[in-house]
Each structure stands twice: as C-alpha cells, then as structure tokens.
TrEMBL record:
It catalyses: L-homoserine + NADP(+) = L-aspartate 4-semialdehyde + NADPH + H(+). NADPH binds at residue 104. Keywords: Amino-acid biosynthesis, Methionine biosynthesis, NADP, Oxidoreductase, Sodium, Threonine biosynthesis. This is Homoserine dehydrogenase. Gene3D superfamilies: Dihydrodipicolinate Reductase, domain 2, NAD(P)-binding Rossmann-like Domain. The keyword Amino-acid biosynthesis applies. Residues 10-128 form the Aspartate/homoserine dehydrogenase NAD-binding domain. SUPFAM superfamilies: Glyceraldehyde-3-phosphate dehydrogenase-like, C-terminal domain (SSF55347), NAD(P)-binding Rossmann-fold domains (SSF51735). Its EC number is 1.1.1.3. L-homoserine binds at residue 189. The active site is at 204 (proton donor). The gene is hom_2.
C-alpha cells in the first residue's frame, strides 16, 4: 500500500492530538484514502520531556532534520506564535509539502502570503483548526458559500471567555473565581491575556475576514475590548431583563468597507448566540442566498482540534486526486 509521510511540528496539546488521531484512525484513513499515513518526524523544543512517540519516529529539535526526511509530503504545524512557524512553513512549501496548521497567531498575519506561495508551488494549505477548533467554519465558508455574498459574521471565537461569562452568570462567581476555574480545568492559559482581552478572537476574526472578503480591515481600526471590565451587577441586571452578555467578534462588509470588532455585546433570547454557553464556540453567517446560518461546537481542545486537522489532511489528499482546490 502507498505510504504518505507526514511530520508534526510541535507536540503539545494539539500536536499530540494529531499524532494520536492518526494512530487511532489509521484504518479509516486507509479506507478513505487507500494509503497508509506514516508520521515520520516530530519537531519539539525540549528533548528531555517524556513523550508517547513510537521509536521509529524521528524526534528532533532541528527543523532541517524534518525537511530532510525523504519523500515528506505533509507537514502538520502546531507550535505557538508567528516565529519560527512562518519560516518553517515557507520552507516546507518550497519543498512542495502540503501544510495543515492550527496556528492562528501566525496565520492571521501570514496566511494570505502562505496561500499565495502554496499556489505557486502547487501545494495545499489546510487551516480549519485556526478558527473555532473542531467547528468546520473554514470549509463551510470556502466551499459551501462560494456563490453566496456574506454581509456579516458574528461569532463567539474564544471558549475561555465564554466559559467565564457563563460561570459568572449561572453561579454568580466573581470574574477572578471563574477565571481560576477555567485555568484549573485547562481551558485558560496560565497567562490568559489573549483569551480574556479579546486578542485570540481578533486573530481568528482576521482569518475569517481574509477568507470571506479576500482582505482584512486595518488592524489599528479594529476595536478590541475584553471581558474583564464586566461586573456581576451588569450580568445580573442583563439577566433580569432576559439579556445575556456574549463576547462577540463581528465582521461587517458594507460596500468596499470592512469593519470589525471584538467586544462584550448584549444579546436577547432570539439572538443565535444567546444560548451558546460554556466553552463552546459559534459562528453566525448572514449570507444573501442561504440566509442566517449558525454553526456551533467545541472551539478548542485536543480531540476537536485534531479532528479539524485530520479532516483537512484528508481533503488535501483527496483534492490531489480530484483537483478539488482547498486553498
Ligand atoms: N490548544 C488548543 O486547543 C488549540 C486549538 C486551536 C489552535 N491551537 C493552536 O495550536 C498551536 C499549538 O497549541 P498547543 O495548545 O498544542 O500548544 P502547547 O501545548 O504549548 O504545545 C506547543 C508545542 O510546540 C513546541 N514548540 C514551541 N515552540 C517551538 C519551536 N520554536 N520549535 C519547535 N517546537 C516548538 C513545544 O515543544 P516542547 O513540547 O518541547 O515544549 C510544544 O510541543 C498554537 O498555535 C495554538 O494557538 C490550539
């Protein structure tokens, strides 16, 4: 049976999730693709950490070793931040590898460049995992709404801030206590600034803007407001009036103008985001033919994120066989 060789950059929550999903779904992959998928290399930073990786897999801190794997076809990227991810993925594309990434911070900035570069090298990029984890929003926009004109997107794109607002309202917890629980449960980072400050949602929103409108608004003009200034009194007052605060990332296209914001928004019971609770993410798309669509699900975590990446991988391999373009 034909073998597809892949490498994983980063072996934290997401990288390990991809590795495990490929091991546990090898039979499904073989049934769908008619190939064996082999993880040939894993790039990490710290060689001393204990990892559950088979002996035959090359584990290295040197990206050159990954690039030198003979017949490497696919690179899964799950490291953190812009650098060196962008440089690694550029080099992988130059080597004619297909890419699947989860790295939203990098992709918000360099996604458009990488997609162009991939087109020149005739390789594909999957980036479903960069926005809303396991929720298939990228493919929905890219493939199911190609003819539709999308005028507005409203979304909950950060599970941590949604969880905190839900806990504060339901259990009357202070912001600090709700954040502490989110950290204990592994939803929030030790440094939660990106989540509660709205920056994580902002990066994802910029990726959605590039995909939906072919461009991003000027980053300096995007209002980004976190949730930490919301008081229990405000949440309670809203609740008594049948409103809920949601941390909403919004994109609107009017004429040639794109406006974007991330901020706490009061939603009423008829709003599609009103009942999106806990760590769930949701995206509401207003499309001229389809109408208003809402897609909801787990926005992060090992398995949902690995699901998005492995599905991207399958589509890429299938697209090579059918000329079905993903990027
Ligand atoms: N966690 C989620 O639910 C989720 C969901 C969607 C998207 N993402 C995105 O996915 C990416 C990975 O997230 P994560 O939660 O898996 O992070 P993580 O648990 O912190 O793991 C990061 C991994 O990357 C490795 N790494 C970091 N910098 C590196 C470098 N310069 N060279 C080589 N390896 C490097 C680390 O190596 P060591 O193990 O040696 O330290 C670690 O294995 C991020 O971009 C994140 O935004 C995460």
């Amino acid at each position: 049976m034909e073998v597809i060789k892949a490498a994983i950059l980063g072996f934290g929550t997401v990288g390990e999730g991809v590795y495990e999903a490929i091991q546990t779904h090898q039979q499904q992959l073989q049934n769908i693709l008619g190939v064996e998928v082999q993880i040939a290399g894993v790039l990490i930073q710290d060689l001393e950490k204990e990892r559950n990786i088979a002996d035959e897999v090359l584990v290295t801190t040197n990206f050159e070793d990954i690039l030198n794997i003979p017949d490497l076809q696919v690179v899964f990227e799950a490291i953190v931040g812009e650098d060196p991810s962008y440089s690694y993925l550029s080099q992988a594309i130059d080597k004619r590898c297909d890419i699947v990434t989860a790295n939203k911070v990098m992709f918000a900035t360099y996604g458009e460049k990488l997609i162009k570069k991939a087109q020149t090298q005739n390789v594909k990029i999957g980036y479903e995992a960069t926005v809303a984890g396991g929720v298939p929003i990228i493919r929905t926009l890219a493939q199911q709404l190609q003819v539709n004109k999308v005028g507005r997107i409203q979304a909950i794109l950060n599970g941590t801030s949604n969880f905190i607002l839900t806990e504060m309202r339901n259990k009357e917890l202070s912001f600090e206590n709700a954040l502490g629980i989110a950290q204990e449960l592994g939803y929030a980072e030790a440094d939660p600034t990106n989540d509660i400050g709205g920056f994580d949602a902002f990066y994802k929103l910029m990726i959605l803007s590039s995909l939906t409108f072919g461009e991003q608004p000027d980053w300096d003009e995007v209002k980004i407001e976190g949730i930490s200034a919301l008081s229990n009194d405000q949440l309670e007052e809203a609740n008594q009036n049948n409103f809920r605060y949601k941390h909403v990332a919004e994109l609107i296209k009017e004429g040639d103008n794109i406006s974007a914001s991330v901020s706490p928004v009061l939603t009423d019971a008829d709003h599609p985001l009103y009942n999106v609770e806990g760590v769930d993410n949701a995206v509401v798309i207003e499309a001229n033919l389809a109408g208003t669509l809402t897609i909801q699900g787990p926005g992060a975590g090992k398995k949902p994120t690995a699901s998005a990446m492995i599905e991207d991988f399958v589509h890429i391999i299938q697209s090579k066989k059918t000329s079905y373009a993903l990027s």
